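Please think about what follows:
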Amino acid sequence: IHKLVAANKILTNSFKKEDIIMAFTVVQKLDKDPKDITPDYTLDTLGEPCPYPAIVMLETMPQLQKGEILELLSDCAQSINNIPVDTKNHGYTLLSVEQDGTKLRYLIQR
């Protein structure tokens, strides 16, 4: 079970976000550079198959307040197609997509 955690900390998969060193390359961005955006929540779906990242993102977003930002981490290759479309179709704003090898990082604003 993945847990949405405030204060940008991950408490799943028995590691801490501070232990993860990722050098993401910006694939897509809206206005701001992703490094200048501080997400309110992180959802770690690394290791989960598609369509789980999209489903859990769509279940999570209504819990956020308007303007809050979700960081979604995924290594599901298909999510690069699903997440942007689902985000737009449900009225959320995709602020950026970044990639580090097979890992993808999405910043999504409610």
About this structure: The first strand starts at residue 5 and ends at 6. Residues 79-89 form the longest helix (11 residues).
